[in-house]
Design brief:
This protein has 425 residues and is α/β, with parallel strands linked by helices. The chain has twelve helices and 20 strands. The protein binds guanosine-5'-diphosphate (GDP).
């Protein structure tokens, strides 16, 4: 059967740790969307690792890790990550790359940089990893699939067609150097040599695994708010971050997905631009960001400081709904132990009305948070594995959130390490 681990918010919810935990009991772990533009932090027996493209099952020898067709495959970043594991003493993982996965090309990275430069103050806060140009090209049918690397004549022809268009853009819009087709082709031949051992028909592999009764885990990047359709468009990413896209991004059937675990932090955090109604500023924000140290004051990929705020039940209830969450893993509750009182955003005030259904972006722009204040627990609960030993105020806080987000909270994570987690139900 298939389980999916997804984000209920803006990303950085702590999916890495939860995926790592579920991965242990899985046979196949799949990345089905996104690229190297975000990352998971995993603290395991080998140490602390930031994964960007590699599925989180790479620390277990019994797992096959699949890079699905929905991913933007950045070959140099992929190889660098494998090296990062080797340097950390991790045994060579078992990895398969779908022959239908498309390649993130060097010109996608350039285009992303040029476009952010051109937009200046109106930029979207892209990580400049080439993700938006990659997915635009994919859907404009200008992408290159991994399988095409093995068809040289066809590849050369396609590169010529693609570069003819790109060069108009590069020369006349961005005033940058033109692309050289031959150089690109040679680079792709180099990529081919590097990834050839991993290329496979992953669709058949995953279908066979399911037929044999194996456990397949889908691992999403970012969160519901970054989905291009249901998120805070245009401050979203360019691939779908929802569990449902797992079907497209690797080829499992909707009916195969039996469990959707949405991950959300006990407070809010976000990296990048876009509306964030319950955001904190000044000293309060600095303190929370600082306390959240392990919970990542910096983005795992960009090193940018995270924006932080109070838990947002409007956004999270919506996030759980669009994900189709069957349960929730609440992370980083340990971070809140210093607070006398904890605010929770339970509504948005828009044009004088209180709204509890997550609105569209233009309305979100004018939304002001409405808070409910709960008592803090004022003690260190880091590492607690017995949920019932958590202070009453902490349990009340979790009960309140659960009631608000209308999805059962089954796991409560009390620290970044593997074992620092408690099962609530
Ligand atoms: P992802 O984008 O959702 O995969 O986010 P990450 O996996 O990068 O998680 C964000 C940060 O939260 C990382 O630094 C994790 O080590 C940290 N983290 C995860 N769970 C907990 C927790 O329960 N408590 C604390 N303090 N940190 C956590």
């Amino acid at each position: 059967m298939v389980k999916a681990i997804v984000g209920a918010n803006w990303g950085d919810e702590g999916k890495g740790k939860i995926t790592d935990m579920f991965a242990e009991k899985s046979d196949v772990v799949v990345r089905f969307q996104g690229g190297a533009n975000a990352g998971h932090t995993i603290i395991c027996d080998y140490g602390k690792f930031a994964l960007h493209l590699l599925p989180s099952g790479v620390f277990y020898p019994h797992i096959t890790n699949v890079i699905g067709n929905g991913v933007a495959l950045d070959v140099p970043r992929f190889m660098a990550e494998l090296q990062h594991l080797r340097d950390g003493g991790v045994p060579a993982p078992h990895i398969l790359i779908s022959e239908r996965t498309q390649l993130l090309m060097p010109y996608h990275v350039l285009q992303d940089q040029y476009e952010e430069e051109r937009l200046g103050g109106h930029a979207f806060g892209s990580t400049k990893s080439g993700i938006a140009p990659f997915y635009s090209d994919k859907y404009a049918k200008n992408g290159i699939q991994v399988c095409e690397l093995f068809e040289e004549k066809r590849l050369m022809e396609r590169l010529e067609q693609i570069c003819a268009v790109k060069n108009v853009l590069f020369e006349h819009l961005y005033h940058k150097p033109k692309l050289n087709v031959k150089e690109l082709f040679d680079q792709l031949m180099d990529y081919r040599e590097q990834i050839a051992p991993f290329v496979s028909n992953t669709l058949v592999f995953v279908k066979d695994a399911l037929r044999e009764g194996k456990e397949v885990l889908l691992e999403a990047q970012l969160g519901a708010m970054k989905d291009p359709d249901f998120g805070i468009y245009p401050f979203t990413t360019s691939s779908h971050t929802l569990a449902g896209f797992g079907c497209m991004g690797v080829g499992v059937a909707p009916s195969d997905i039996k469990q959707v675990i949405a991950v959300t932090k006990a407070y809010s955090s976000a990296v990048g631009a876009g509306d964030f109604v319950s955001e904190l500023f000044g000293d309060e924000a600095e303190e929370l960001r600082h306390r959240g140290g392990d919970a990542g004051e910096y983005g795992a990929t960009t090193g940018r400081p995270r924006r932080v705020g109070w838990f947002d039940t409007v956004a999270t209830r919506y996030g759980c709904m669009v994900q189709g969450a069957t349960e929730v893993a609440l992370t980083a509750i340990d971070v809140l132990g210093y607070l006398d009182e904890i605010k929770v955003c339970t509504g948005y005030e828009i044009d004088g009305k209180i709204v509890t259904d997550f609105p569209v972006t233009p309305l979100l722009d004018r939304a002001k948070p409405v808070y409910t204040t709960l008592p803090g627990w004022k003690c260190d609960i880091r590492g607690e594995t017995d949920y019932h030993k958590l202070p009453k105020q902490a349990q009340d806080y979790v009960d309140f959130l659960e009631e608000q987000i209308k999805t059962p909270i089954s796991l409560v994570s009390t620290g970044p390490k593997r074992h620092e987690i408690s099962r609530r139900r």
